[in-house]
């Protein structure tokens, strides 16, 4: 295995496998120093003791870190450690159950127009009778509202987004007729159409074939080179090493109902260490070399 995908299939809630060491400080891999050095205006995201969850219950907690503008952060952790919940919290869709959050110095609700997001593939309905172009156009509704006509500028933005992900020729196709990888790129175009400064990508590489994976990897690098900030959750640690400047590792709680917590945060080369990966993926054997990070369940 060249990724933590299989490890992530293990049950994070099994307390026997979760005899975890005390959580490392999120700033442990230089995150603290970085946070101190970053003026609020240089940070795309600042979390101070933040916790996020649902119905008053935290699902991920203890997040104290700053993400510099222009960083690409790989968000890594086993199933249930709270990756999606954190991403939803940044969008203002999961409750802030503790601490504070600032996105470009604002609350998530106020910053929402500056954020583009790609949700997990299994949260989409591909049966809707809409074309790819219509799906991408939906990305403009957040800033303009669904009832206001899109106009020429909007149509051009949609065309540019489609071109960017290499799907111009497929614009009139029904979304559900596209392959999984093309749908993924289409949703990325929807996220890009409003020219966001912060992109939240929830496991965009899951289930992609090599070609679509490479297209997406290239896009992540390009978007970052344009100065956009990206937070991408992934089970593929190679992607973190290939395309990201920073890594945030989340570990599961010690018991099924305990929230996840950060195991490490910082520049990839400092945060993505064997120790930190082992801490995050507690019931797996992890190997790390210059090129690949391999995890294997101990039971295998
Ligand atoms: N809408 C919700 N309401 C209540 N609990 C939720 C909701 N969504 C997720 N959870 C719970 O929050 C915890 C964290 O889930 P989350 O999806 O954030 O983890 P994850 O790290 O993204 O996992 P995965 O890798 O499987 O996507 C889990 O225990 C999950 O059951």
Automatic annotation (TrEMBL):
<feature type="domain" description="ABC transporter">
    <location>
        <begin position="45"/>
        <end position="277"/>
    </location>
</feature>
<feature type="region of interest" description="Disordered">
    <location>
        <begin position="1"/>
        <end position="33"/>
    </location>
</feature>
<dbReference type="InterPro" id="IPR003593">
    <property type="entry name" value="AAA+_ATPase"/>
</dbReference>
<protein>
    <submittedName>
        <fullName>ATP-binding cassette domain-containing protein</fullName>
    </submittedName>
</protein>
<comment type="similarity">
    <text>Belongs to the ABC transporter superfamily.</text>
</comment>
<keyword id="KW-0813">Transport</keyword>
<dbReference type="InterPro" id="IPR027417">
    <property type="entry name" value="P-loop_NTPase"/>
</dbReference>
<keyword id="KW-0547">Nucleotide-binding</keyword>
<dbReference type="InterPro" id="IPR050153">
    <property type="entry name" value="Metal_Ion_Import_ABC"/>
</dbReference>
<keyword id="KW-0067">ATP-binding</keyword>
<dbReference type="Pfam" id="PF00005">
    <property type="entry name" value="ABC_tran"/>
</dbReference>
<dbReference type="InterPro" id="IPR003439">
    <property type="entry name" value="ABC_transporter-like_ATP-bd"/>
</dbReference>
<dbReference type="GO" id="GO:0005524">
    <property type="term" value="F:ATP binding"/>
</dbReference>
């Amino acid at each position: 295995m060249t990724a933590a995908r299989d490890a992530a299939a293990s049950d994070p809630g099994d307390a026997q496998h979760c005899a975890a060491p005390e959580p490392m400080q999120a700033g442990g891999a230089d995150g603290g120093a970085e946070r101190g050095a970053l003026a609020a205006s240089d940070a795309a995201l600042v979390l101070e003791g933040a916790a996020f969850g649902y119905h008053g219950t935290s699902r991920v907690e203890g997040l104290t870190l700053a993400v510099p503008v222009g960083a690409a952060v790989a968000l890594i952790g086993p199933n249930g450690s709270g990756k999606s919940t954190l991403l939803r919290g940044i969008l203002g869709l999961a409750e802030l159950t503790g601490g504070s959050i600032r996105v470009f110095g604002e609350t998530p609700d106020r910053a929402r127009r500056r954020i583009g997001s790609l949700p997990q593939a299994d949260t989409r309905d591909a049966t809707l009778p809409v074309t790819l172009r219509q799906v991408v156009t939906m990305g403009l509704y957040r800033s303009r509202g669904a009832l206001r006509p899109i106009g020429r500028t909007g149509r051009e933005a949609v065309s540019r987004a489609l071109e960017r992900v290499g799907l111009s020729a497929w614009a009139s196709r029904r979304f559900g007729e596209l392959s999984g990888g093309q749908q993924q790129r289409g949703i990325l175009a929807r996220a890009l159409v409003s020219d966001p400064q912060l992109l939240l990508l929830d496991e965009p590489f899951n289930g992609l074939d090599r070609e679509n994976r490479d297209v997406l990897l290239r896009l992540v690098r390009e978007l970052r080179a344009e100065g956009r900030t990206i937070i991408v959750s992934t089970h593929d640690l190679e992607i973190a090493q290939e395309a990201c400047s920073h890594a945030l590792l989340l570990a599961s709680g010690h018991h099924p109902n305990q929230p996840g917590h950060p195991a490490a945060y910082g520049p990839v080369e400092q945060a993505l260490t064997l120790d930190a990966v082992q801490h995050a993926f507690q019931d797996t054997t992890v190997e790390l070399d210059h090129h690949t990070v391999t995890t294997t369940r101990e039971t295998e």
